[in-house]
Amino acid sequence: MESTEGSADCLPIDFLRLLFVRLSARDLCATACTCRLWDQLTRECWRAKVQRRWRHGDAKWRSLSQSGEWKQLYRERHMRDCATRAALQDLPWPVRREAALATLVAAGDDALDELLGAATAAASQGKTMQPPALTGSDCNPLRRGPRLLGQQYWTEVALAALRKREAVTLLHKLTKDPRVAEERPDAGALAIAQAHYPGADLRGVERELAALASELQRRMQVEGAPAGSLRALRILNHLLFGPTQSASPPPSPSPPSPSPTLPSPSSSSSPSSSSPSSPSPVAPWERPPVQQSAAAAVLVKLAGADGGLGLRGCEADDYYNPANSMLCDVLSRRCGIPISLALLHLAVARRGGLGGRLELIGLPTRVVNRFVPIVKDPEGEGGSGCESDADQSNTGGGTGAGGEVFVDVFGGGKLLSWPQLRSKMAGLGVPVQRCHLRALSPGQIYERLCTNLYSIYRNAGDMPCLRLVLELCGAVAEQSRDLLIRRYRVSLSLEDWSDAADCLDAMTASIAAAPLVPPPPDTAAAAGTAASGMDEHLRHQLTAHMSRLRRDLDDRRSTWQSSSVIQKHRPPSVLFSVGSMIQHRKYGYRGVIVDWDTCCRMDESWIKQMGVDSLPGGGRQQPFYRVLVSDRTRSNGNGGNSNTNGGAGSGSSGSGAAAAGGGANFNDSYFSRSNSAADADAMATTAAGAGVAAEVPGPYGATCPQKWGPEGFESQLRGLHNRPRAEETYVAQVNVQLVVPMQQQQQQPLPDTMVLPPPPRNTKPYERLEARGLTLVRMPYDFEVDHPDLGYYFEGKMPGAPHYRLNAALRHRFPADCEEWDAELAGAAGYSGEGECAEAWDWQGGDKWREGRVCRT
Question: How far apart are CA 96 and CA 87, in angstroms?
Answer without folding.
Answer: 9
